[in-house]
Amino acid sequence: MKILVCxxxxxDTTSKxxxxxNNTTFATEGLTMIINxxxxxxxxxxxxxxxxxxxxxxxxxxxxxxxxxxxxxRKALALGGDEAIRIDVDSNDPxxxxxxxxxxxxxxxxxxxxxxxxxxxxxxxxxxxxxxxLLDTEYVGFATKLDIEGTTANLVREIEGGEEHxxxxxxxxxxxxxxxxxxxxxxxxxxxxxRTKPLAVVAGTGAQAQSKIVSYEMPTTKTGVKMIDxxxxxxxxxxxxxxxxxx
Length: 247
What we know:
The protein is α/β, with parallel strands linked by helices and about 250 residues long. The protein has a single domain, classed as 3-Layer(aba) Sandwich (Rossmann fold). The chain is about 25% helix and about 30% strand. The chain has helices at about 35-50, 70-80, 95-110, 125-135, 190-195, 235-240; strands at about 1-5, 10, 20, 25, 35, 60-65, 85-90, 110-115, 140-150, 150-160, 160-170, 170-175, 200-205.
């Protein structure tokens, strides 16, 4: 079984975010970029666990981006991926990302495609579903557990008030969330090995974006909490209308 893991580069949540070009792009100067945690901690690590258990023969990594994403994909290789593919396209449109990955994956006949439930920069959470549609395969989103028996996948995902147990045939696309696996840290051996592992650069297909970001803005500054005496209901109602903007 061959597994493809989708990897996205995102800003570190501890970095101070700023915008440039009239608030239409991220200001990248001094910005630390990392592997999207949902891709790394859950999708990639679960793929590696399946390989270690003898249920997968290869774990390939794929990302869509320019050369600046290569340090991030190398880190993913250091964790244990066998080889990586970078599709040389710069786009934040989720459909473009899905189309580019699907174009490559179709020719490679992967049995299982894993991705994080969403990226922590745009929080769209739609690439996995789009990818499954383009590959014409089954899709299970927001999975917390995954196991493989032959050509059958057994999955669990959280639903309102409980869990949903799903059985699917491969090939399959799965988006992963907390519970799927435990975070790993690359060791020195993995870091050294990642330097020589294959990283292929593939030209894009020319997929056209269907959306664009008009502008970014910072969230409003949080104000302090006002404590209202329990007997002063009139003041509370007035503040809800005038400050909380409750109509």
